[in-house]
TrEMBL record, chain A:
Organism lineage: Eukaryota, Metazoa, Chordata, Craniata, Vertebrata
UniProt keyword list: Cytoplasm, Nucleus, Phosphoprotein, RNA-binding
Bias (Low complexity) ranges: 211-220
Keyword Nucleus: yes
Protein name: Protein PAT1 homolog 1
Source organism of the structure: Cyprinus carpio carpio
GO MF, one example: RNA binding
Domain mRNA decay factor PAT1: 461-607
Automatic annotation (TrEMBL), chain B:
Originating species: Carassius auratus (Goldfish)
Domain Sm: 2-76
Keyword RNA-binding: yes
UniProt-recorded name of the protein: U6 snRNA-associated Sm-like protein LSm2
Taxonomic lineage from the root: Eukaryota, Metazoa, Chordata, Craniata, Vertebrata
Top-level taxon of the source organism: Eukaryota
Key words of the record: mRNA processing, mRNA splicing, Nucleus, Ribonucleoprotein, RNA-binding, Spliceosome
Protein family according to the UniProt entry: Belongs to the snRNP Sm proteins family.
GO molecular function annotations of the record: RNA binding
Listed Gene3D superfamilies: 2.30.30.100
Major localization listed first in the record, in broad terms: nucleus
GO (cellular component) term, any one: Lsm1-7-Pat1 complex
Subunit and partners: Component of the precatalytic spliceosome (spliceosome B complex). Component of the U4/U6-U5 tri-snRNP complex, a building block of the precatalytic spliceosome (spliceosome B complex). The U4/U6-U5 tri-snRNP complex is composed of the U4, U6 and U5 snRNAs and at least PRPF3, PRPF4, PRPF6, PRPF8, PRPF31, SNRNP200, TXNL4A, SNRNP40, SNRPB, SNRPD1, SNRPD2, SNRPD3, SNRPE, SNRPF, SNRPG, DDX23, CD2BP2, PPIH, SNU13, EFTUD2, SART1 and USP39, plus LSM2, LSM3, LSM4, LSM5, LSM6, LSM7 and LSM8.
InterPro entries xref list: LSM_dom_sf (IPR010920), Sm (IPR047575), Sm_dom_euk/arc (IPR001163), U6_snRNA_Lsm2 (IPR016654)
Job of this protein: Binds specifically to the 3'-terminal U-tract of U6 snRNA. Plays a role in pre-mRNA splicing as component of the U4/U6-U5 tri-snRNP complex that is involved in spliceosome assembly, and as component of the precatalytic spliceosome (spliceosome B complex). The heptameric LSM2-8 complex binds specifically to the 3'-terminal U-tract of U6 snRNA.
Amino acid sequence: MFHFQSFDDDCTLEEEEGLVEEEDEIDQFNDDTFGAGAIDNDWQEEHARLAGLDERVRDEVDGAGDASSVDLSLSGSNAHSSAPPQPSSSSRLYPSIDERGGGDLAESLTHLILGSDPAIAGVGAASSDRSLRPLMLSGQTPQPSALAGQSSLLLSYQQQHQVMHRGPAPLSQDKTLMSIIKEVGLPNRPPALSREEGRDFSERVPPPRSSSPVIGSPPVRAVPIGTPPKQPMSHVHTQQNNHPSAIQHVRASMPLRYPPPFPERLSPNNLLSIASSPLSHSPFPAGVGPVLSQIQRAQLLNSQVGPFQRGPAPPLLQGGVGGFRPFFGQSGPRVGLHGPPLGHAPIRHNTTHLHPQHRRMLNQRMQNRGLGDHVGGRGVGDRKNRDPYSNLMTQREKEWVARIQMMQLQSTDPYLDDYYYQNYYEKMEKRQERDRDNRKEHTTKLITPQVAKLEHTYRPVQFAGSLGKLTVSSVNNPRKMIDAVVTTRSDDEEKREKQVWNKRRQILYTVEKMYSLLLEVQDFEKKFLQTPEHQRDALLEQHKTHMVQLYNSLREKEWDDRVSDKQCLMIMSVRKGKRLISRLLPFLPQPHAAAVVMGIARNLPALAKKDKHDQVLCWLVEPVTTVIQSMSSTSLTDLLQELQGSEGQLPLVLQNKFGVTLLYLILSEGERMQSSDPNCQLMDDNRWTELVFSVTRELLKVPSSALSSPLFTPPNLVSLFSRYVDRQRLELLQEKLQITSLTR
Amino acid sequence: MLFYSFFKSLVGKDVVVELKNDLSICGTLHSVDQYLNIKMTDISVTDPEKYPHMLSVKNCFIRGSVVRYVQLPADEVDTQLLQDAARKEAMQQKQ
């Protein structure tokens, strides 16, 4: 017999779609089809029985008199009391709308919907009549009672189940208004009912998969990714690192689950009826019975969305601490610093874990806000209790879906894939350490749990002796629609394509190429620590090649060791280029770096002119400082000479902020050399002295307006000048340059 | 994974998300996933309450495909690092 599934404890239709596998396997766990829910009784028998009840009631009702409010009765009894009670309710099964005589559309609709099932019809009439009696007696208007009847109708459908399975429901006989409220509280029984029927959704086991793990769905894991660790964190931390086979998914705390709402096994419909029944007494458009108002819907949605507000939600970011080793390259055995070499399986890292620094910040933030949000939290808490959609999926199903998403977030090389995030937080930590200086917080590294990747190759299912292969598409191997082949373009083609006729574009292209080399160089250190011993030489060679290539791009001709001015100038004319040089300088070996700085000094006026728009030359200060401090005295003298260069260069230099800073740096370095090392060669020839003289002359000559202030003033300039100039001039200089003997 | 990584670093910060239907939502970025779906907490609609139905909403989940802009705090972004990440991604693509 066709049982009305949709009014059952939950939307079984959805349940069926979720449970039925690709091959339409019979749902063995569907109780309605095969279990206790499917009682194979003859509908005619049952109907007759219920109709009999109905008849009994109807007699009483008719006796009471005003039967107009019984128009509700879905057995289609006549609204008029004058109508004789009909012997069989079958004729009342399908009430004609015109019976109403132009009555409420809502009522007739309800009749159509609910009345078409004779089972409901029968029972509905029976108990609704009983419940309606007190209403009639209390003289309420038909409309609200209609709605009350409706809601009690839905409830009474539950009763029908009880009737069928447990005998007549123990309804209290005194049908006052109080009893209706009791009935409204009735839904507590269906949970007991469903438990009995084995329809406990929290323990529902998904049906056995039709396809084998190799072909189909995500591999069945002993410990699903979502489970929290059993041991305390410290244990897992040490055991974590090198277990290729074990699945490690570690979380610091129990993941925030949606708390079980108060009536866990209620169907949405039930709750809706509860929600609507209090409203039934208010003048509502009758047709809206099981439909929620806008406000209620918002509330429901809120309560669903509410739970995740504090703390990361499971499928998205997760706070966790596990073992992490940044690995490079796509595959190949990777070895942690302590541990046996792993097999061929590449290790996958979970990138959804937060950096400990990040988590600390988040916690701080939450604490700050926690006090303010206290009141708000309570309000949501109330709403949290009523979550009608909480048990549509079992916990395992939810985890399965979350697992699929998380699988995509696993990567073999988190350092590469998650480059921005990891570097950002590393930098932040370094910054904080620098700021806090002596605090003994050791740098926390981001560690992600590692999951051994199981290789799945899809082999289409074959049956012996059959033609062709079946394709079972699932999450792991979706249907292959296009045969996409990746063709990498060779370098020649690339060169041809990049027919750079535009000079600026050429510059940018060069800069970008250099950048990629630079990034490789930057990562060299990290890589070096990761690679095993035998591969280190190769890596070193590679590194050297990169460096040579980088330097080559700065030189014009291959054999000439000098830095090409033209090239340098070209690169530095672009903002990106200046950045590049400033980042490149620390990596260059000393002679090369010195050559670059010389080139910069030599061409400073031109550079300054080009930089007028960007004003970013000052990026170079820091790396240049480092270079200068490691220069020898001769090269320093050379540098100063270069800076002064041709006639009239110095005034131009002085006009530019960077120029002045550079000058000061050179002078200060010279001074430091002289004062610290009495044997220094700075004074060997007169060059240095002469140069300093000319500098001071120039400084005094230049009007103050043409002198730009440097980024910073080294403290030992005064002592420098005091060596070379007399007191009067010294004072003038001091005033002009605003340097005092006190350190700034 | 570049922008997923980028948004991960912004979790916990205040952002304004402008959707393709012109609704602007201001709130704290709670989480993000690989599709750049966004979950936000403590939200408020930035424009004058042209959208009264959002008055009671405190948290929301926004599908990544409907986002037009995400306005970020400038000091939380390291542009140099972002450039480097983009370069690395481009290099990876080429290989």
